[in-house]
């Protein structure tokens, strides 16, 4: 890996979903265990923001399938702390780097459609003060990014818990 940041060299030896070289089979096993235990799946996310004289703005990205506005998120990664995984997801999905908080600023829940079933997911969210927007990034062809002021970001997301987090952060 290059550089000091966990995001440096992001994607090396990984698929697009952060499941590592063990891939989809490992993710399916984790999903089956969580469903059997009746507990939600766990994901991580970055909350990209910047402060302007007019107020705080959030960077949202489009999801790949439904094109709804979301924050960069993904699955936890082996040998990475959750905040490091969130930092990597932000680089891969939105082409952004900056200062990420090591403690979650909140969480939100949503239903994820996986193969033939919808499963509950709880997402731990880590604040990311954006310092650099890269003109080219891993998922650029499949996503768009947009800066929105707080009030517009709150209205733009579909997940009520995420909207509440944006409103208070």
Description:
This protein has 169 residues and is of the alpha+beta class. It has a single domain, classed as Nucleoside Triphosphate Pyrophosphohydrolase, CATH 3.90.79.10. The protein contains 4 helices and 8 strands. Strands 1, 2, 3, 4, 5, 6, 7 and 8 form an 8-stranded mixed beta sheet that branches. The protein is globular. The N and C termini lie far apart (33 Å).
State the fourth-level CATH superfamily: Nucleoside Triphosphate Pyrophosphohydrolase
Radius of gyration, whole Å: 15 Å
Helix count, DSSP H or I runs of 4 or more residues: 4
- Structural class label: alpha+beta
CATH architecture: Alpha-Beta Complex
- Element string (H = helix, E = strand): HEEEEHEEEEHH
- What's the mean pLDDT score? 85
* Main CATH class: Alpha Beta
- The number of distinct structural domains comes to 1
The CATH topology is: Nucleoside Triphosphate Pyrophosphohydrolase
Quaternary structure annotation: single chain
Number of strands: 8
Main β-sheet: number of strands, strand sense, barrel status? Answer: 8 strands, mixed
Give descriptors for this structure:
169 residues; alpha+beta; Nucleoside Triphosphate Pyrophosphohydrolase; 8-stranded mixed beta sheet; globular; disordered N terminus
Q: Layout of SSEs?
A:
Layout: H1 23-37, E1 41-52, E2 55-62, E3 69-70, E4 73-74, H2 82-94, E5 96-100, E6 106-114, E7 117-133, E8 145-149, H3 150-156, H4 160-168
Parallel strand pairs: 1-7
Antiparallel strand pairs: 1-2, 1-4, 2-3, 2-8, 5-7, 6-7
Helix pairs in contact: 3-4
